[in-house]
Amino acid sequence: MANHEKYDLILDALEKLLTGRNLQTISVSEIAQTAGIGKGSIYYYFPSKEAIFEALVERNYEKPLETAKKLAGQTHISPFTRMAMIFQACRSSSSAFLDRQPSPLQANPQESSLLHQKYMNHLITEVKPALTEIIRQGISAGQIHFDYPAALAEIVLIVLTVKLDNSLVPSPVEDIEETLLGLISLLEKGTGNPVGSLNFLTTCMQTPS
Amino acid sequence: MANHEKYDLILDALEKLLTGRNLQTISVSEIAQTAGIGKGSIYYYFPSKEAIFEALVERNYEKPLETAKKLAGQTHISPFTRMAMIFQACRSSSSAFLDRQPSPLQANPQESSLLHQKYMNHLITEVKPALTEIIRQGISAGQIHFDYPAALAEIVLIVLTVKLDNSLVPSPVEDIEETLLGLISLLEKGTGNPVGSLNFLTTCMQTPS
DNA sequence: ACATTTTTCGACCATTGGTCAACTTTTGTT
DNA sequence: AACAAAAGTTGACCAATGGTCGAAAAATGT
User: Fold this and answer.
1) Residues A13-16: contacts with CB under 8 Å, at least 24 apart
2) What digits encode the pLDDT tens for the residues B116-155?
3) What is the dihedral of CA B85, B88, B89, B92, to 10 degrees?
């Protein structure tokens, strides 16, 4: 395990440069320059440009994952509340990272796509187990009535991730709101909970900015 | 509007080359060579490599979209059946296009990501209106009980697209099966339909290969 | 037959991701 | 302290890429 300062310096540099630009438009030399080190050093720490990127995704993803795992054990809190907390954690960590809209005036519907997709992938696969466990507890406790806990966890994560990261499938704010309301309604009916009882989930699904 | 033969030739070439490789590893010269034309000609028909790619996505997407639009008008068919038909159309058109697994032996968990994502984006935004309309009809007819037709359409499309295109969030076949079963169950309970009544939806959700 | 527009082309250019051998710094050993 | 081995750093360098361009070749019009 090599020098972690430089390693993080490189990640910082890429993160900074990633603002409103996609990976392709950022050169390795530029990353090196921004990090204040020689280009060669970059390849001492990372095997490829892609790898830097991947490491960055992973770094930004650490915290929400931990939160989720911890929360899985807190059985004294209501499962839905814990769900809400997980969403919150994901949301806040990702917003700092993903929210950069593509340069406003440029007709750039294209992508920092890789970043978003990788983030989504990580989020779903990593958080799913914790969320599944929570749902399972909710089922045991009689607060959730549903036969496919893992599936439910995944469905919720997928929809939330896709809709809250409004760049995979960009849509106007009202659409996001409506889809989330719909999801909550579907969740209420699907898990045998009274209408409106899950409305508090909207608090952690605020659309960015 | 220029010569359409060459235009399609280029698209064909890219489609062929895209088998198991991502865009980055395919050079424009290679596309030209495969298409049997000069490299310069490519830039006569397309402004950039990206644009070729985008056009390819669009071309492969035409048919399912039309199917969906037509189906929206067929009010004599049950809404759920029409849903099933739309999924089928999407599925069959996309499979020819997306199913190429990354080279078997290579530890290449990475991406033809752009392609998949763009496909997903198109699918969701374009099919959503038709599906919403169908759901709305189902609500009027008393076959579906749900307050957010557009949201329901989007949720279903998102989950299906993500799970059936098993490369955005790769997971084992059993997982896919379970998530789809869960979705169907959620749909049944959420729309006030009896358990098992939507099971026939699984037929059009066959996992690829 | 000729002029004009559309299409085709590959040599060419700037820039890129990545390598490498040389150099400096750190660490360990006596 | 003296030395050697290891770890870390560097920018010149390389092959390859996406994209440009002027010129040639087809196609079209008159």
Assistant:
1) A14/A52, A14/A53, A14/A56, A15/A56, A15/A60, A15/A97
2) 777 888 888 889 999 999 999 999 999 999 999 999 999 9
3) -160
- Cα separation, B91 vs B118, whole angstroms: 15
Is A125 in contact with B185 (Cβ distance < 8 A)? no
What is chain B's mean pLDDT, rounded?
A: 84
Say whether the CB atom of B6 is under 7 angstroms from strand C. yes
A residues 55-74 near B, CB within 8 Å?
none
Helices and strands: H and E segment counts in chain A: 8, 0
Instruction: Please state, in angstroms and rounded to a whole number, the distance separating the CA atoms of residues B202 and B52.
Output: 35
Tokens of A25: 């438009």
Q: Does pLDDT of A131 surpass 70? A: yes
Please, which residues have CB within 8 angstroms of residue A101's CB and are 6 or more apart in sequence? A20
